[in-house]
Structures
1.
Amino acid sequence: MNIILKAWGLLLFLCCSYSAYAVVPPPDTALHLPVTSPPSCNQVTIAWTSATASPSSGYHGKRSLLVLQAVSATNAMPEPEQGISYISSSYFGAGQQLAPGQFVVYADSGQATTISGLQANTEYRADVFAYYDSTSLDAASGPVYSPLVTTATLYFTTPDFSSSTPPSLGASGASASIVDCSTAQLTCLPGNGDGRLFVIQRLPSGADGVSLSTEPQSGQFYFPNYLYGQGQAVAPDTYAMYLGPDSTATLYGLIPGERYKFVAYEYQTERDGTGGNTCTNPGYAAPVDTAYFTVPRCSTTEPLVAASSAAQSDTTTTTARVRWTNGNGVRRLVVVNQIAFSNGLMLPQQNTLYQGATAFGQGSQTQPGTFVVYAGQDSSVTVSNLEPDTYYQLAVYEYNVDQRGKPTYLLSQAPAYTLVKTYPEPEPVAPSDLRVNYSVPFSYNQGLTQVSWKPGTGSHYVVFAQEVREGQQALYEPVDGILYNQKLNNDFSPAARVGDKTYILSRSTYSSSGADTIVYLRNLTIGHVYELAIFEYVLDGNGLPKYTGSIPMAFRAARMEPVLQGELINDVPTLTWTVGGHYHAEHFRIFASQDNTQFLPLGPGIPIAQDSSVSRVALTRPLSAITVPTYFKVEMYHRDGQWLYSNTILLSPGKPLPVELLRLSGQVSEANRATLNWSTAQEKNSAYFSVERSLDGLHFVPVGRQAAAGTSTQQRAYRLVDPHPLEQLTYYRLHQVDQNGAATYSESISLQPARHTLQLKVWPNPAHAGKQASLHLTGLDHQAGLVQVYIRTLTGQLLHHKQLQAFPLVEWSWSLAHYAPGVYLIEVQTSAGRHFARLVIE
């Protein structure tokens, strides 16, 4: 008969007559109707909503604890103890007890369970509790149960069963074979029923046993146990030992020297209208035979007091310490099994000496899967080699030893027993703060890239990296159980490759210092983009890796900065700079300053024809003579809009100026005539000033001369008009000549033609995704060289680069098919400087 319960108002649905009432739970916790399940033997299906319990720091894994009790035995509110893990069984009476008669039937993360082993016409009470498991390694930690106010309670009564017809042929040939002083093998011949119930009765001293009843109640199934006294009682000192279709079973825990009675009852369950077996309402046939047997005494006396009060402490993810109170045996045997793989038996065999090992799984076995972890006189043991987040059973058996060293175990009393629950492995913490730094390389393929990061909780690490290329597969991820080898020099060598294009660059064990971990990568291609990931792992029991956490990043390999040197010959500077290698560099440009703050370009950029992939690049440029100390540096500009500057050098002229020049300035008229103005604070033996002009800032030609004052201590002003109209950006300087022929040069200034004011327009603005945009640039002439157009995102990512020829009107249109809506930066570079506009795409 299948019973399905619903509680929130707690409706109870039975296959026949029933009675039910409920304590209404709060709305966050309730028993409710599950999906209908097929009928099964003497069972009820209970479901509940996800119980609510607020976790505190250090706890995880919301679970439910369901406790069931027969009201005829007890009707008290169950009170689970904080920090105690309870073992459950879906067969009523087989799970751990919170109090006498209160059995745990479920303890897990689900929301429904089916309970069997119920009795007919019996009232039951069910209570569900929410709890969280602890992730802490504190010995005092454990499950944390919700307050009782969040508990749902359900009362229900099972239907009354009518007895089925007993089998016509009962079991016969009952016999008992003694195995040792506490164990017997029981056998019978089956009758014609569905199965048989083995009943064991201990006979009082002097009793013949015939007059003592062992008859089971028709219509009732009995919960059996292979340990004498642990099965359900049928009569005084009479217990169910086996229930099922077999005809033989082994009985344990008998008292040495005592006499017992064994009876096998054949039973048959009720059939439905079609003759099908309903597995309910057993009817028992009278036994044909009864067996009597006496258990022999052991080789030495059995201890009289069992060990007790076993309790877990000092727990970690793989170890647990258990303490107990000793009985009166000479020694004690501690056995452990993993509940998931246990057959329920743990006890040792008499006269058998076992070897203990505190590492679980390495000692002797008393039963399949039950290992001896200690054999000695102490009252505690620390068990290791356990699995994280796993339940174990532990029992302590007292024993004495005879003169020949054979042990007699106390099996007729319950041993000290406890559940052991290891803590879950902490959530792994991934490595963090991944950074890339660069050293100054001394040739193209020998630059070092420094990668550093803060370790996570792994014990080892491996570094994977690859160059980012269009259409390439994702970065390879390591597989648990595979240990990857590496090249010792951490370089991008084919021998270090794994997967498609991924390289294993480093693998090692973390140091114990907790400091940042640093590795150096070799042979990265200058300026190329790479993706890299740090994978951490721990080693399992076989020394194989289990990968626990990772941190990825993308970076561009370092570009090399120019290294600048210079010298003065007759106050004329000559600059020389070298670059170890360059990638996608567009031009060099020389900058000068008199205060090391305001730097101005000296002429247009010096084009870079192609990438340098093998050796250093060296360039030398002579400049105009200087009359004051001057700072110089060199810019190297790349096609993606990034630039690097060289070191700054200072060059100082070697003799004082014959003329103290105050300033040089210029204006451009509407007719594009340049007027140069300059003044002096004092002059000594000055002959004349020559005004020189240049289109590139390097090569100058004279355009006019102005006589000087000779010798003067007063401020003098001079003026000269360039007879040649300006057609593009033009540089001017003064060439001052003394009466003895010595000469000096001023700093250069630049002037723009009036009509060449650059105007940049991008339209339509806003534009529409999938359409086209156009660029208009005015104010240049045919001699202005090339126009470079760059389209970037606001974060600086280069999306497109276009090179156009300079004209008075430069026009260019491009498709927006692959542009997402947003704001984009349009940059135009010309000989007249850089110009910017924003484009909004909707």
2.
Amino acid sequence: MTNRFLWCLTVATALLTTTILSGQITPKKLTAQRTTKRVLIDGKLDEAAWQDAAKAEEYIEFRPVVGRVESYENRTESFLMYDDQGIYFGGTCYERNVDSIAKELSGRDGFGMNDYIGLIFDTYNDQLNGFEYFVTPLGEQWDAKMTSNQNSNNGGEDFSWNAVWKSAVVLHDKGWTFEMFLPYSAIRFSKDKVQDWGLNITRRRRKTEQQYTWSPIDPNVNGFLTQEGTWTGITDIKPPLRLQLSPYFSIYGNHFPANLPGQNNWTSQVSGGLDLKLGLNQAFTLDATLIPDFGQVQSDNQVLNLTPFEVKFNENRAFFTEGTELFGKGNLVYSRRIGGRPINLHKAYENVDDSEKIVNNPAESKLINASKISGRTKNGLGIGVLNAITRAQFASIENLETKSVRQVETDPLTNYNILVLDQTLKNNSSVSFINTSVLRGSSNYNANVSAGLFSFFDKKNTYNLSGGAALSNLTHKGPEGRNVMGYQHTLHFGKNSGKFTFNYNQELADTKFNSNDLGYFTNNNYINHNLHVGYRYNEPKGWYNRLFLNFNSHISSLFAPIGGLESTYQNSRVQFNMNAQTKKLMWFGMMLNYRPHEHDFYEPRREGYLFRRGSSVTIGGWVETNQAKKYSVVLELFERKFFNFYDVNGLDLFIGQTYRFSSKFSINHRLGFTPRPKNVGFTSILADQSILFALRKINTIDNVLNLKYNFTNKMGLTFRLRHYVSTVENKSFFTLNPNGSLNPTNEITQNFNRNVNYFNIDMVYTWQFAPGSFMNVVWKNATYYGADSPRDGYFENLGNTLDADQNNNLSLKVIYFFDYLQLRGKKSKKE
């Protein structure tokens, strides 16, 4: 009873000290404590050093109930201290009932359904950039870089960033106890003698979805880092020499075709390389990869692309995802361009005559090496430099008579460069400069894009004015070389804090702007206006925990008329959304969208034409059950109806199911079904240059099965199977008029039907046998099946796909992590 009384008294005092007369939250402060005593990271907190550590307690809930204090039975006690080598964080997450602890082995940076506790450091105290370190009840680690600027393209958390640090957890009848040690090599900070860092600590209980922080958070205020507390008086810590090497050794065996008995179709490859991290000073790090190996990354989700634009794939290569928040500013970089499709891939076919055939035409360029330098000075200047080189790529063309082979260059030796300067300012504001350049050998053109960005908040962190302008320049070589310069800008104004929020933005690009060589670019020549108005209820009331309402509208026009067409209007929409979390921790939402008629200048694939679509209405909703349950489901259903004489319509259905058999084993199934009983779109350009459209039936199924079994918090096995099938059955044909109308035609004898299947298996065994060191064994299967018959049923398509030529790949890769400081420490101990 005495402990409970003292707890209530402490909590009451905390509530008084975390508010001021204006009603705003006062960030907390914690005095830094240095220790000279030894600490063993075993999760037990039994060392004498913890008695002298600063105590961080009195955690405050910020969801679902804002401002509510932890109960005594479920309280959090945590301790923070430091020494010459790093930072120690430990404590106990109490639970009234240990069965209430949500725990699942999900792998490093794999969230799963886990309780967790973690530190958030803003080492430069700029309220814009932070480092996060989390641990779960089963001892798994997460870490991330965090950005607070709401209008940056990489705002949020980057969990692809990884550091090497230690942790341990012990489960017991009162909850779970944890210890973490963060070496200074795992964080970036200045070399000032006395430092104050931004600090917050957060704990989440997944079965109740309660989340607490040490320094209180108001969810109606813009940003998480803007509300952090402070760790004060950190004295005489020195950024260490950061030299980390990760050499790798890999073996690949490839079997193609894998389903032809009696044939030896195996090929093999042995390779090795090196990843390096070198601290250039206290803040900047050089990352380099020599002879990179990306053969074990997850297979792309290939699709049948019926649009006029390129499919954008996820970046799965660790070097291009880890710690790249600076390089994403301005949305000018699509890293898949580096080592992507050769720019003259299809031109090889133009060089083939009747006496020749192409025997090899690689679809990807080979990366020779890549390096990046990134960091931020104590004055808030972030600098990022990235350089990558790909080797020249050639297609092999064989003479059918002489069997001689000649080479045709499809991609020259290419150098990719990115430069970013990002200066943080007071009030969570910043200005940035970005430059990207692509320098090519041979006679191919070079490309350069430069952009300036700004983001300004008022003193209360409520209103924001932001935007930017970019110039692109394509330099064509040769005696008739020319420069093509284009312009693009964005302008944004909005209210980011409070229950009521809004933002308006304008986007403009002229007819010559082009960022495609190092960015993802679909089209230029537009003026877009967007408005978003929202209202959020973050306090539980009645049947809901949280409720969000918003209205948005959009209108787009051409910047300049094209192809002699008078119309510049493209499209517009108005949309209403509602999303809510119920008291039972179920999420659901609904959407209503109306689009007036549209002028599509890109679907015809030829300048001087447009395609006129009728107005349409989309209505739909989604529901997500409590993810903390053993079985959970996500369901999305949307229906779009066009109002025109084609009677076009379409349905989008998605079902995702997860079942957790235990903390080690779970299964997830995701099924997407998008039937289009009536759809109108581009089909082909005929010999007389007329544009052929079709009224067609499209059915697409995307079927993904994921299995996960983790043996320990350092070893696990994942299995991912995906079968994608899309069929197109053309019912009737039309030729397109320049004004967007269609003329029926009965002269087409080719059916232009499509039946496309992609089948992939990615099976990965991973073992972290030492800090930062991994052994991965990967099996990948890739199969493609295509036909002009769209009538095959799903299982018949699956059977035909499995009977097609399969490409099986088995690989072993060992990565060993060396830290110079650890090696030096071991040597000193021996001496």
3.
Amino acid sequence: MPVASCPVHGLDADDLSCSIREHVAHSLGKRGQEAGCRDVATAMALTLRDRLVDRMLETRDRYRESRAKRMYYLSIEYLLGRCLGNNIYNMNLQGEMAGLLQSWGFSLEEIREHERDPALGNGGLGRLAACFLDSLATLDMPGCGYGIHYEYGLFKQSIENDRQVERPDYWMAEGMPLQLERRDQAVIVPLYGRVEDHQGPDGGYLPLWVDWQDLVGVPYDIPIVGYGDRTVNYLRLFAAKSTDNFNMQIFDQGDYIKAIHQKVYSELISKVLYPSESISFGKELRLVQEFFLVFCSIRDITRRFLKQNRNIEELPEFTAIQLNDTHPALAVAELMRLLVDERRVPWDRAWNIVTRTLAFTNHTLMPEALEMWSVELMEKVLPRHLQIIYEVNRRFLDTVRASGVTDEAKIRRMSLIDENGGKQVRMAHLAVVGSHSVNGVSKLHSELVKKVLFPDYAALWPGKFNNKTNGITPRRWLYKANPGLSGLISEAIGEDWITDLDQLQKLAPLAEDPSFRERFAGVKRAAKAKLADYFAKTTGIVVSPDAVFDMQAKRIHEYKRQLLNAMHVIHDYLRVTEDGYVPPAPRVYVFAGKAAPGYFEAKEIIHLICRLSKVINADKRASDWIKVVFAADYRVSLAEKLIPAADVSEQISTAGTEASGTGNMKFSLNGALTVGTLDGANIEIREAVGAENFYLFGLTTPEVERLLGEGSYDPWEYYRKHPEIRRVLDALSAGRFSPDEPAVFHWMFEKLLSRNERYLHLADFMTYLDAHERIGMEYANPDVWMRKAALNVARMGGFSSDRTIREYARDIWGIKPFPPKGAAPRA
């Protein structure tokens, strides 16, 4: 490609071409003819960044001129996915870019494949945060994200000898051209030290946090472009760097290595993303990591606010801060510390500012996921914050008693400090007490938050609790990920659905049209054929695009019940090979997901799935009817390949365990039919798409609570009563799928038959089989199946993250859109 000199910031094909060639020459230092695929990808990203920065500055000026109230989203995780393709689609440049690349001998798809996924999240929590940022920008709302600039992501997963192997995911290895380093806005972060009691000039108590160690938080901004290139917000990620200051006492003692070691330790804070279920990660480092996020964010937010020459007591009028789960809960204590210690705001007025500014989203019902930190550790790391938490707790419990509560057991339950055994700070309680709003993320989950997690708080503050059902961005999860289906939709009803997903309801009458169903089926088969090619290249497994593509793609966890799915695979295999059963249609079972490195049970479930794949795919009696694929290293870019090709979406968690789920929404939006329990957002999806278009099975939440609460669950009863269950478990126990290690899966047999098996696999197994029988029969009738699939797409409008963001903005944040001059607000 030749180099030419030209202006930088146009958006037509000629300007884009010139800019890309300029960056190849002047940013990468190469001749045009030397530029390979990766070079072109980098130059494209830099070209887009030039335009995004222009628009980001214009957006910032628009907010400032309007004195807009702003929302700041604090999250320990963000799963952005590849940014290059997403930006191209949101800027509506896919046609221009594809044409340019073709003229240079490249394709847009191969260019995008050279970008690494920014591995800044474990799963749904981080992906939801990314969807929210997309919707905020698309809706022209003043909101941005704060997080940590992890150097290493969760981990890269490979399968070796049928087991998960973890390798470091240095996602920055190729750089990230899109991001902007903001070293001039770095933050000094204090840690450790002690508190000295002093008296202020006014005679009041003046605590001084002294002898603390410091490190630096350096911000990096990633522009977040909304659809149509109208608004560009940003995600600000902080990287931990050591200061230029050594501990001179250590240095003067001649221990140079120890002095250097302290500097290196500081940078560990943003080195690696914490795995969700890991217990091996250092507790102290994790606490420091969470405080690092909170301190950098609060300092940056208040700096921006005060730059406008406003009184700090006006903070809630112009600022909303959303805590995405308990990880940023220390924001309650840090904002209080800043107000009381640094700004000298009286306690009661400071507390009023804190509670009016902060809001809290709970994402889990799992007791082990509700963070608690030992008082001893917090006193070591954050001595002043522990003092503040104790004072918040004292005043709060005085309020509880003043409200008429005399039950000391209830008061102990509501305390921010857990006194059972070693004292611990309950971070979820701190977030609830310090926020003006507490929301769950689906209707069922929000009810369980009030009923199970925080019943005493809900009784005290019933108006504080609300629901905000999660959503997904249709830009990435339909418009970009599934161009075949999005093209068919746009041809049928126009393009307004991209920013107004309710427009999809116009497809409902077309589901009755045989010609539309035929075209819909053609789009689905093309996506399946593309995925089949990917499997053949990456796994060597050959699958037919005419089979049912049955998928479960999500983090591996016992409550998500990949084991239940695997049991069904065993059941199908034994029916075919031992009973001579002929299924109505071939089935390809696709599993994808990572198990936390320290989570034995989850890793062994992956081991079982890989053994099933090896045995079943090699058995000529079954391989024409059943194939099993484990798609390794699940990430956003892999999800974009899997989801458009799915026929069946497995959403099979035990009722009452999944907060919401967003994978269930992505699959359904792309025309997969759900087999699922009444759990999380499954309930709302079933209501929306119609009970007849959803394959329901399993116990309800009250039934689960009753079985577990009464201790009446007896899995041996199911084992004795149902030969189907007995045959599957006996095959596991006997080493049918692990002849070289006959006892390797025997623990599963024992656990599934234990009265303490709290996810009730056996209780739900027979109804799960019934649901799959219905799936097989209905898939064999293309008219029936495609009508159901098309109606799923048509009725998913309510699950856009645009809708979710509008509800947060209206009910919690008090922010509104600020579109460019002359542009109408989004519908």
4.
Amino acid sequence: MTLIRRLTRVLAPLLILAVPAPLLAQDDCTIGVASQADVPAFAMPDDPWIFRGTDIPVDPQWLMGELPNGVRYAVRRNGVPPCQVSIRVRIDAGSLHEEEGEQGFAHLIEHLTFRQSRHFGPGEAIPHFQRWGAGLGFDTNAITSPTHTVYQLDLPGAFRQRLEESMMLFAGMIQEPTLSAENLAADVPIVLAERRERLGADMRIAVATRELFYTGQRLAQRAPIGTVEALQGATPEAVRAFHQRWYRPENTVVVMVGDASPQVLAAMVERHFGGWQVPGTPTPAPDFGQPAMPEGADPGNPVGETAVIVEAGQPRAVSYAVLRPFVEVVDNLEYNRGLLIDAVAQAILNQRLEQNARAGASYLYAQVRRDKVSRSADGTFVDFAPLGEDWRAALADVRAVIADALVNPPTEAEIEQAAAQYDIAFVDMVGQARIEAGSKLADDIVNAVDIREAVAAPETFLSVFRSLRPRLTPDTLLRHTQDLFKGNVVRGILLTPVPGEATAADVRAALLAPVDTAALARNDGPAISFADLPPIGAPADPALREPLGPGLVSTTERIVFPNGVRALLRDSDNEPGRVTVRVRFGQGRAGFAPGEGVYAELGTRALVSSGVGPLGQNEIDRIGAGRKLTFGFSVGEGVFTFEGLTRAEDLEDQLYLFAAKLDQPRWDVAPVERAKASALLGYDAQDNDPMSVLNRDLETLLRGGDPRFARPTPDDLRSATAGEFRRVWSRMLAQGPVEVAVFGDIDPEATVAALSRTFGALDPRGDARPVLDPPGFAAANSVPHILYHGGDPDQAAAVIAWPTGGGSAGLPQSRKLEVLAQLIANRLLDGLRETAGSSYTPFATSNWPLDMDGGGYLMALVQIAPRDMDAFYTEVDKIVRDLSANGPSEDELARVIEPMRQYILRAQTGHTFWLGQIQGGAFDPMRVAQLPSLAADYVLTTREEMQALAQRYLLGHGGTRVAVLPRTGEAAALVGR
């Protein structure tokens, strides 16, 4: 029963900002029934196919139908965002449908479908949809899984003619792609580049795990990316045969959700898919197989195959699975009640595992999950990471928690905590139903079809969950926990960086060894009330309340408290029941002293979990039961940020947690030691592929070695102490100024009162914006700075970056630099992917820090084979010279600007869009002053402006080049020849 949200159209007016109306505003684009052509012939409102055979209440907002040729469809009106229609075409064929010599064909056809088809010439599809505002990857995409292939289009500005044409084009792509030798020659290298970028330890681990867990099944040997041999051997005839075998009407489901009458959408599906005929009889789906014990195994001993994977540099990890046959179920209400009881049982078990990790168990983390995998197995999976080398002790600790849960039922306190969290989640889903995006609704239908289940409205989920609350007894949950660990076979795998550390027999023996459940931690103490917590201080009323400014920000209130804390409030009911709280304070990375950088890393991992006032992490878990509270923390370049997603009735509690962390921080040692262990365990893995090396080292290089922005080394981590962590973060938490932004569905007066009792009650914080020292930037170089990785010899990465600027005064220019970055990204995509086939994911991005006057950069990055490294730099130099000399063409500028325009149109209906634009504005008036030109800075960008920016920033500096090569002497010689 997939979650489906009921919604009504959001009638929020689109703000025009400072752009002429024709450029940004759109007329009402809801498509209504206009003639007999808009009346479908095969809609079945009284017999929707996805609800057949189930007692799940039919969601009447879906209109479903079946065409005589076998195509099924599901359509629905939705106005979120306005003027958009989301189209999904699902083909019931993925990698599990491939024969031995076809491995990779399902995914290859996905690429070929976008290459050329009935109505599109070579390479025309993506640019066409970009001109209509659909961004590649964001709005236009496709997915191939083991069980299906799904084509996706989220079409903005979906007026009738454009939508009709899009359906015609999309149908032509699916039904008649041009599977020619020329297109194979163009797309096979792209797929091989995609495969190469995925190579490395993670892929080898995934392959080995899949081969072990699904031994004897198709899933063990068929990944969607395919094999080099099959892809290089693909012929037009073989690919066409696969397409004809599986791309058939009876294997197709079309979903349309958007700003149009369901009758109109259904009629469009019928017009463009009703005439589709494929010769021959349908091919039955292959038998995916079932998990089973090996022949001759002891039927009384469920532990079957085990294995050891050796990957140098990877942290130790253990996974084991209790596997059962996949059974297609009757998706009814009682079946879902059982799933919900399973979910509560899993939540209690996972909470116990986490509590024991916090209490000093020998594992860093552990999790139990149940999953139905690719219609091939129904499994309960246990995954954990040992804290050190003794994986046997960690396995014993994890198995002890599970063994205890299989004998001793949960307490009422544990049940109440887990049930309360599910209840609040379902309540939130009901509240958000009317603003659920059409794209999400379309994806829900597709996923339900894939797992052969129905869909349900969120009200149904809440009702079903609350109806079974009396059944959530200790004995019932004990039985469901026991059922989770019953199966046909148990298979386990150890990942280790050390050859010879263990054998498969050792893993098997450890899975069978007895365990001791005597000393286990449980978080089943009494409930905790916020009313019992110490106050922050004496409440203080605001010293000033005023509109943030005229026009666009007149609905945002600026509040100043006597202690220097400032707040921004925006009451918005277009996301009912949802409130976002964002607290900005301090100086971020720029505020660390030399030698303190390691504590920035540890702070992101341990600051929140080290506690608040009298509350440790376990107590925070308990006090949050039945409330919607979150506690995010991030370290920015020039600011620290707490963020929480809550609701009006829990808003004061959310504010209390954040204010208490500033005023009454707790300094539990265990979270710091755990954070150190986590960082150390994962450090060596950062050497195993080019992108991991860049994630670790690139910022340091680009920042000219500035120690504030350096990633800590293992020696840094080992020498870090809990005492020094407390000293550094005590200073950071005390830094002012403090800005609290509360945006969403709020009562402004109640919110101000809650702020007065929390942030207004803090000790004085100061109200002057700090002047931050921005980092420098590395010098330009013609020969790249070389980094090395220890992974696959055919993998490399290359970067070129140019310094730009920072600060809110330059906001208009920063927006135009985003346009320039996307122009470069599109040219790299056209040159390196679509033409040369040498890279799958080249991209470019612009970073402009607003909290400091400097430190920004524009960067282009590519994953590529070492032999093609020079081609990247040659292509970038060519792009820079041309953009500096000529600027972009009008067409390519339109392909960038229109998706940006459509993004603004869609995003501005949500309060987090405005929060992102206004944050910092309580202290920085330039952010507010620059807001009216937001859309114009993107939409009215000219070719001449792009040319001038390219000349100033790209030619002016020349670029800092960084390359990551495999650790071989020959590879380095490939660069700068």
